[in-house]
Design goal:
365 residues, alpha/beta, TIM Barrel, Arc Repressor Mutant, subunit A, 2 domains, 3-stranded antiparallel beta sheet, 14 helices, 16 strands, globular
């Protein structure tokens, strides 16, 4: 479920969000109820294995808004007793009382958008929280009964910020999360960061810095007991993000909310992106699906290769794929075990090129 609201657009963000001083929680929940009513017939009757409230900033809905969303979900679906139920939150939205209400509504996993522990970097990113609020949010979540906590951090920032990546990793580890998601900064056109770069006010970090910080995180976090189980994700044993792992395995899912995507196993569809247009259509009794696509066999194979190579488990490889990958293994970019092929962290730095190379082999070119 995509909850689009934010207090402010982050400098690097090109997501479909709605910046609001006052979050229209009532109207949003009514639109979600309308969309679920329209689309339930196309959904599986089996209990939901995972629920993910992403954004935007779902925590801006507060305790009551999140509880009402789960009431809307449960009116249409059963949620499995052992389901993974994740809520994305900004640190400044979390208190023990609110976390307790989220837990009572069904949330058992919290993903905190920390991004950095450097005050200057947070200001540059247009984040609304402070360093102190990140640590306080972790404590509050645990006090409220949510133990499964994931932290998001961004690396490969412009050198002018003088952000100490090693220190950020140390401070993240000191909070003892079960999961970490690390994303390299990308510059997108139309964002504040894109405009700063176009005016020459900031320079994107060089590839050497990206590689150095990516591999430093791998070294530090694996030494601390985390498994680097996907390009951007680390987990303690048993704490892999089950919801996200479903995407990499091409498991069917239903997406609701503005700009949300759905997949039924063969066909993908996506909703209208702008919140106002999405809400207006649904509250008028109309549909909010903007488009769809069905991948042909060749594109399905290319996607399966790319998604498989993203994970530490890799993919089952044909003999000709393994033959092509011998030079990857020799270069330290990949490893094989029987007929399975997986990339190493160094290989993940070359993911796009290696996936394209393997796809060309699969297509006989």
């Amino acid at each position: 479920m995509h909850v689009p609201f934010c207090r402010r657009r982050c400098s690097y963000c090109d997501f479909s969000i709605a910046v609001r001083r006052a979050v229209p929680a009532d109207a949003f929940v009514r639109a979600i109820e309308a969309e679920l009513a329209q689309r339930t017939s196309a959904a599986s009757g089996a209990p939901l294995a995972s629920v993910y409230l992403g954004g935007g900033t779902p925590s801006l809905l507060g305790a009551d808004g999140v509880a009402r969303l789960f009431d809307a979900i449960r009116a249409r679906f059963a949620i499995a007793e052992d389901a993974e139920v994740t809520l994305e939150a900004n640190p400044d939205d979390v208190s023990a009382a609110v976390a307790r209400r989220w837990r009572d509504a069904g949330v058992n996993r919290l993903s905190l958008g920390v991004q950095s522990f450097d005050p200057g970097t947070l200001a540059w990113m247009h984040r609304t929280h402070t360093v102190e609020q990140s640590a306080a949010a972790v404590d509050a979540a645990r006090t409220g009964g949510i133990e499964n906590i994931s932290l998001d951090l961004i690396f490969a920032l412009p050198s002018v910020l003088r952000r100490d990546w090693d220190r950020d990793l140390s401070q993240a580890l000191a909070l003892a999360p079960r999961h970490l998601s690390l994303y390299g900064l990308t510059v997108e056109q139309g964002t504040p960061l894109g405009r700063w770069q176009a005016r020459g006010e900031v320079t994107e970090a060089p590839e050497e810095k990206y590689e150095r910080e990516f591999l430093e995180a791998d070294r530090r976090l694996t030494a601390a007991g985390f498994e680097h189980y996907e390009v951007s994700n680390y987990a303690l044993p048993g704490a892999r993000a089950r919801h996200n792992a479903s995407y990499w395995r091409r498991v069917p899912y239903l997406g609701v909310g503005p700009s949300a995507h759905s997949f039924d196993g063969a066909r993908r569809s996506w909703n209208v992106g702008a919140y106002a247009a999405w809400s207006r259509a649904l509250l008028a009794g109309e549909g909010a699906i903007e488009g769809s696509e069905t991948l042909d066999a060749g594109n399905e194979e290319a996607e399966r290769i790319y998604l498989g190579l993203r994970t530490v488990d890799g993919l089952e490889a044909a003999p000709e794929w393994l033959a092509r990958a011998k030079r990857w293994v020799a270069a330290g970019w990949a490893r094989t075990e029987g007929t399975r092929l997986a990339l190493t962290p160094t290989g993940w730095l070359r993911l796009d090129a290696l996936a394209a190379d393997l796809t060309a082999v699969a297509r006989g070119s």
